[in-house]
Design a protein that fits this description.
Blueprint: H1 2-18, H2 26-43, H3 48-56, H4 62-91, H5 95-113, H6 122-131, H7 136-145
Helix pairs in contact: 1-2, 1-5, 3-4
């Protein structure tokens, strides 16, 4: 619900910004959409970097995995913070379409590639990853790269 709610909030922010010059009350739509976006982020994908590594890694590599996940999380936050104004200048009122597209891609990735870990032991999760093998064509392509 978090990702799709954020996507809908991003679309609402875009609609609010596009129609702001025609309807003054659209600023309230944008403000509500921003608050909903932040709330849905915090209950949805926001904590993922902090808990998914605890479910996917055993005790030995877990601290390093948490460090990498935390670094990636903060690096992406920094990049978004530093680039947002340039993207806003480039896209104008459609700036949140960029975020909506990224949210859609992230939703599809999570739905198709991230395993369900609820009620499973670490051994079951690791076994599921081991069962997923590259197709023969991909292995051949990898060997050609060497």
């Amino acid at each position: 619900a978090g990702l799709m709610g954020m996507l809908i909030s991003g679309v609402a922010m875009t609609v609010g910004l596009v129609l702001l010059s025609q309807f003054a009350w659209m600023s309230y739509v944008s403000m509500v959409a921003i608050f909903l976006f932040v709330i849905l982020f915090e209950v949805g994908p926001g904590p993922i970097p902090w808990f998914i590594v605890a479910e996917l890694f055993s005790q030995g590599p877990r601290p390093a995995a948490i460090a990498v996940a935390g670094f990636c999380n903060w690096a992406c936050n920094f990049i978004v913070g530093m680039c947002f104004q340039y993207i806003a200048d480039l896209c104008g009122p459609y700036v949140f379409v960029v975020f909506a597209v990224l949210l859609l891609v992230f939703f599809l990735f999570a739905y198709l590639k991230v395993p369900e870990t609820k009620g499973k032991s670490f051994e079951e999760i690791a076994a599921a990853f081991r069962r997923k093998k590259l197709p023969a064509k991909s292995m051949t392509e990898l060997e050609d790269l060497r």
